[in-house]
Specification:
The chain is an alpha+beta fold. The chain has helices spanning about 1-25, 25-60, 85, 95-100, 160-165, 175-180, 230-235, 255-265, 285-325, 330-335, 340-375, 385-415, 415-420; strands at about 65-70, 105-115, 120, 125-130, 130-140, 155, 170-175, 190-195, 200-205, 225, 240-245, 280. The model has no long low-confidence stretch (mean pLDDT about 80).
Length: about 425
């Protein structure tokens, strides 16, 4: 019987809270507005970060867990690099020959890449008849790069060692470049294009690459890849090479990193007391950077949501204090007929939690609607609401109700029944 009466009492308190909400619809709506905004903010930010995590982690993992990038400074840093770091001497392409001889190294390759880093776009043009692809990234690679990087072919082939040795004018084009030059769907393999005014034969087409951040077209898909020997002939002035290394097994990565660092220090002629004047980047390096970035984004947006929740919580406390004042005589009557302090405390606390939880449910629905709009507007962005996010939103709202409803409930429970009955 006690369980039934307890459940009935909880149900009655919730029904009473909803009745208070209905009778003071505008006031109650304004009260829970802060909670709605705060919870919807948490839902949207959580969904967006999950979508970003999916994209970024996919892009990082596509590098391969056994890949190492060597450059004169690190790309995985937050903030502006010091001037002395930016002025480090370039790496030499010939050093990959020594890197390739290291134990547990599967392949090594230099890369020459000409693009406008400020605009995140290329600076070359590719033409085919009246069609012209602009802002194309020009990249020179050795055939061994196919064993290291994520060059997945949609059709055709990658250039081979014969192409590299004979300086063959062949190219592998990116997805966007092909769509621009062959808009009618013609097979580009075997066709001739003009790359910076020179005739090249298309031997392959790259698959569309997944974009880590943002949506829309990926600038990395507007690219023309040529043999490294051809690239050096086209741009002999270019010296800023990046060196790629692939370990024969992911388990040997720490050993390969140490050996590559020792080799680079030796060819850079660095004394033992001097720090590295180059950077070795692995998937772990980029994962750590992304954790810092996503953590900062989440903390900043959580602060915004917390302010809205705080305002909503104060609103709940305010309406409950007003409710206690308005129902002082009712409280006195209930105490006069035997209601204990715990009964009054429970009733008003449940009312506060119900109001806050209702705001949380509305916030979850609003957040879900916003996420749906994001998915429709940016179909390639995998933002999604998980059950854990929904549970977090509702539980946070309920906790706000408990925290800010305790004082009004305690005040109601402490009322003197005699004075409460005399209240007009």
């Amino acid at each position: 019987m006690r369980k039934q009466s307890g459940a009935a009492g909880i149900g009655e308190s919730i029904a009473l809270a909803l009745d208070v909400l209905r009778r003071n619809l505008l006031r109650s709506s304004l009260t829970v507005l802060g909670i709605v905004i705060g919870v919807s903010t948490i839902i949207v930010i959580g969904a967006v970060i999950q979508g970003l995590n999916s994209n970024v982690l996919g892009s990082i993992q596509s590098m391969g867990s056994n890949s190492i990038i060597i450059y004169r400074f690190s790309w995985a840093t937050m903030g502006r690099l010091p001037a002395d770091v930016l002025q480090r001497k370039e790496l030499k392409a010939e050093w990959v020959d020594g890197l390739e001889q290291l134990p547990h190294v599967l392949a090594a390759a230099p890369t020459a890449r000409i693009e406008n880093y400020n605009l995140n776009a290329g600076s070359s043009n590719v033409r085919r008849g009246s069609y012209r692809a602009q802002n194309v990234i020009l990249e020179g690679d050795r055939p061994s790069i196919a064993l290291i990087s994520n060059f997945n072919l949609e059709r055709g082939r990658f250039f081979n060692q014969t192409d590299e040795d004979h300086h063959s004018p062949v190219t592998v084009l990116g997805h966007i470049t092909v769509n621009t030059l062959f808009p009618k769907g013609d097979d580009p393999v075997g066709q001739e294009v003009l790359l910076e005014g020179q005739a090249f034969t298309v031997v392959g087409v790259l698959e569309a690459q997944k974009q880590a951040l943002g949506t829309g077209e990926n600038p990395e898909d507007n690219i023309a890849v040529v043999p490294f020997s051809v690239m050096r002939k086209m741009h002999p002035e270019f010296k800023d090479f990046v060196l790629f290394v692939a370990a024969d097994d992911a388990n040997n990565m720490p050993l390969v990193v140490d050996e590559a660092r020792e080799y680079m220090r030796r060819v850079r002629r660095l004394p033992s007391d001097k720090e590295d004047d180059f950077a070795l980047l692995t998937t772990d390096t980029f994962l750590e950077l992304w954790k810092q970035i996503s953590g900062s984004i989440f903390i900043a947006m959580l602060a915004v949501g917390s302010v809205a929740l705080l305002v909503g919580g104060i609103g709940v406390m305010n309406i409950m204090l007003v409710s206690v004042t308005e129902r002082t005589r009712e409280i006195g009557v209930r105490k006069a007929i035997g209601a204990r302090r715990l009964n009054i405390l429970t009733q008003f606390l449940l009312e506060a939690v119900t109001l806050a939880a209702l705001g949380g449910v509305i916030g979850v629905l609003l957040g879900g609607l916003i996420v749906l709009v994001i998915r429709l507007a940016f179909s390639s962005f995998p933002a999604a609401i998980s059950l854990s996010l929904v549970a977090l939103g509702v539980s946070v709202a309920g906790s706000i109700g408990v925290f800010f409803g305790v004082y009004p409930a305690w005040k109601a429970a402490r009322l003197n029944p005699v004075e409460a009955l005399r209240y007009e």
